[in-house]
Design a protein that fits this description.
Number of strands: 5
Helix content: 55-70%
CATH superfamily of the largest domain: HUPs
Strand content: 5-15%
CATH architecture of the largest domain: 3-Layer(aba) Sandwich
Order of helices and strands: EHEHHEHHHHHEHEHHHHH
CATH class of the largest domain: Alpha Beta
Number of helices: 14
Distance between the termini: 31 Å
Largest sheet: 3 strands, parallel
Length: 326
């Protein structure tokens, strides 16, 4: 039996290069050696965007298409939508009965997101309690591992603590999942800040080749390099940061050397990067185009995924209810 790994992603916007280089590239590797459960966390999207829900269904569908285009394989992993499995919500309610409020308030992202999203009213139970829903997402499938970046590790620790509390209060039902730390390069956006849909600086997987080239053409570079003849410093250039993630070693070395001596200009540097990205994204674009021509394929994937996930979730919930005595 393979160890089980579980992860999800909120449909809060189109997926960009940061999502591909972070979560998706890891998921496609994990599905080869683990029993993978990957879900669109549409209920989680409500925790901060409860007042704007008109795009959730569309973004959910587009997310599944992007996942499949990037190489997630429904024959190797279970792909489903969170809201298709009501048992997630039932387990969330049951776990919320035993979770102390201070445990939730100590989660680092609780205060961080409140500060970052000042324009939204996050004084809701849904926002405070979403880590319990995350816990339910993991425990209902008895996942062995949860792949996360270092900033999300406290959420896995909370999941382990809630599992221990449940097992102690009632009967041993849940495994304590392990954190599977994954490397996710921090990609700069076109304005030099972290790539994010919130900053409108992202290169999206659904962008056309023309759009990608245009975004790179206008991307900020070394601010000290005002003229073509000025030598540059790749260490402070956002374009070079993308080269380090996507380009081959010879190209990286060439750019690093020739930028410093002004042998190449910023336009040349960006063209090298554009060629690299177009080559790497062409298979994703081609597969995405084919999937969009067969919309029934997406429905089949998520319906079959929900069917498989439901079997596992139902088994867990029977054990949970028996342990509690309800």
């Amino acid at each position: 039996m393979k160890s089980r790994v579980l992860s999800g992603m909120q449909p809060s916007g189109r997926l960009h290069l940061g999502n591909l280089s972070g979560a998706l590239s890891n998921w496609t590797k994990l599905q080869e050696t683990y029993e993978g459960y990957f879900f669109v966390a549409d209920w989680h999207a409500l925790s901060t965007n409860y007042s704007e829900t008109t795009q959730i269904k569309t973004l959910t569908r587009e997310m599944v298409i992007d996942w499949l285009s990037a190489g997630l394989d429904p024959n190797k992993a279970t792909i489903f939508i969170q809201s298709d499995l009501p048992d997630h919500a039932v387990l969330h309610v049951l776990l919320s009965m035993i979770t102390p409020i201070p445990w939730l308030e100590r989660i680092p992202t609780y205060k961080e997101q409140q500060e970052q999203l000042e324009d939204r009213d996050l004084s809701t139970y849904g926002f405070l309690g979403y880590p319990i829903l995350q816990t339910a997402d993991v425990l209902i499938y008895n996942a062995d591992f949860v792949p996360v970046g270092i900033d999300q590790a406290p959420h896995v620790e909370l999941t382990r603590a809630i599992a221990r509390r449940f097992n102690s209060l009632y009967k041993p039902v849940f495994k304590e999942p392990q954190t599977l730390l994954t490397e996710a390069p921090k990609l700069p956006g076109t304005d030099g800040r972290k790539m994010s849909k919130s900053y409108n600086n992202a290169i999206y997987l659904s962008d056309s080749e023309k759009t990608l080239r245009e975004k790179l053409r206008t991307m900020v570079t070394d601010p000290a390099r005002k003229r073509r003849t000025d030598p540059g410093d790749p260490n402070i250039c956002p374009v070079f940061d993308l080269h380090k993630v996507y380009s081959s070693t010879p190209v990286i070395e060439q750019v690093n050397c020739e930028c410093r001596t002004a042998k190449i200009g910023c336009i040349d540097c960006k063209q090298f990067l554009a060629e690299t990205l177009v080559t790497q994204l062409n298979p994703v674009w081609e597969k995405g185009c084919a999937i969009r021509k067969s919309p029934a394929m997406v429905d089949d994937v998520v319906q079959e995924g929900a069917k498989r996930a439901r079997m596992t979730a139902n088994t867990t919930m029977q054990k949970v209810c028996k342990a509690i005595g309800i």
